[in-house]
Design goal:
With about 350 residues, the chain is an alpha/beta fold. It contains 10 helices and 12 strands. Strand 1 and strand 2 form a beta hairpin. The strands form 2 sheets. It has an 8-stranded mixed sheet with strand order 6-7-8-3-9-10-12-11, with helices on both faces. The protein has a 4-stranded antiparallel sheet with strand order 2-1-4-5.
Length: about 350
């Protein structure tokens, strides 16, 4: 009997991103910073996957490696049927319009010497082959979509507020009608009053254009608002991958439990009775991670097996995957939702 479930738009299998460490006068390769150490997940078309974790856990590196702004060390990334990591340069260039990115700092990601129209129109010049008249019409259309006044077309980035600059970045990402957008902490550099406006804009664009997002953030409250499923990262690995409501109602992994315990409650009564989980110790170095579970040095529920055996990301409840020895199972590690197997691809850093 054939599997009728749709294939995911994005399939990530055992993605690794190691940055080499060179020491000494001869700059010998003496180790690696394991920023991303074997990450696997799927994103269905039209879905938003939230990727959360503390600073330095590898969230942004996953996003950049996913669309090959970094050259991954190993793994497989399939977007709309193509393995991104094996594409030749020309084929990768043709694939670029389908996958775009909204960066964290809107001021740093916009060229200060280009006007708004030039910034939004640059992808159209590089990839679309449109005439100047058609490009200008498309630029105005994109400005309307993200809520920018057409009179601003000839202004420079420094003349805009932070929220307006982020709208410019979103318009630039939308210029080529992408299927998949990596949102790398798009609200982190904005005022709190502006954050909700940008997130609502992203949701509205997703509904109208059928977009698929990887939404990277450390703001757990905002992720709860926008994401359909949430992946919790710790030290380069995924600790838990669950539907949003199930994760926030009852996190399974001890790290996810500690992370969510820090989210403030708007209800004063519930806030007063909330039990914080304070983790002891420091995050290990990604250049020398623990042998077993990455969280074993700080976990309040640590067992002997945690220090020696690395837990696999395994489905322990329908739709919920956890990498923890507290949830023993006889099933195989979680595979793609489409049931496909994967092969490890090697790539130089």
């Amino acid at each position: 009997m054939l599997d009728a479930s749709p294939a995911p738009l994005v399939k990530v299998r055992d993605l690794k991103m190691y940055f080499p460490i060179h020491t000494g006068v001869l700059r010998r390769h003496t180790g690696d910073v394991k920023a991303v150490d074997g990450v696997s997940f799927d994103i269905m078309a039209g879905e938003t996957l939230g990727l959360v974790g503390e600073s330095g856990c590898g969230k942004s590196t996953v996003g950049r490696a996913l669309i090959r702004l970094y050259e991954p060390t190993a793994g497989e990334v399939e977007i709309a049927g193509d393995n991104i990591l094996t594409l030749a340069p020309e084929a990768l260039r043709k694939k670029r319009p389908q996958m775009q990115m909204v960066f964290q700092d809107p001021q740093a990601s916009l060229n200060p010497r280009m006007t708004l129209a030039q910034i939004i129109g640059e992808p159209l010049i590089e990839h679309s082959g449109k005439t100047a008249t058609d490009r200008l019409a498309r630029i105005y259309e994109l400005m309307d979509q993200v809520g920018l006044n057409r009179r601003f077309a000839n202004r420079y980035p420094h003349e805009f507020s932070g929220g307006q600059r982020q709208r410019i970045g979103i318009a630039r990402a939308l210029a080529l009608n992408p299927k998949f957008i990596v949102c790398d902490e798009p609200i982190a550099a904005l005022d709190v009053s502006i954050q909700a406006q940008v997130v609502n804009l992203l949701e509205d664009l997703q509904d109208r254009l059928g977009l698929t997002y990887l939404f990277i953030s450390h703001d757990l409250s905002m992720v709860r608002h926008i994401a359909d499923r949430v992946a919790v990262m710790y030290l380069g690995r995924i600790a838990e991958l669950s539907p949003r409501d199930a994760l926030y109602a009852k996190p399974l992994h001890p790290y996810a439990e500690a992370l969510l315990s820090a989210v403030p409650e708007p209800d004063p009564d519930r806030e007063g009775s909330r039990q914080r989980i304070i983790l002891k110790g420091d995050v290990p170095s990604p250049a020398n991670p623990p042998k077993g579970c990455a969280f074993c040095t700080r976990c309040p529920k640590v067992m002997d097996i945690c220090r020696t055996d690395r837990p696999a990301l395994t489905e322990v409840e329908p739709g919920r995957q956890v990498a923890c020895h507290l949830f023993p199972t006889t099933s195989a590690p979680a595979k793609s939702t489409s049931g496909g197997q994967y092969q490890l691809q090697q790539h130089g850093v």
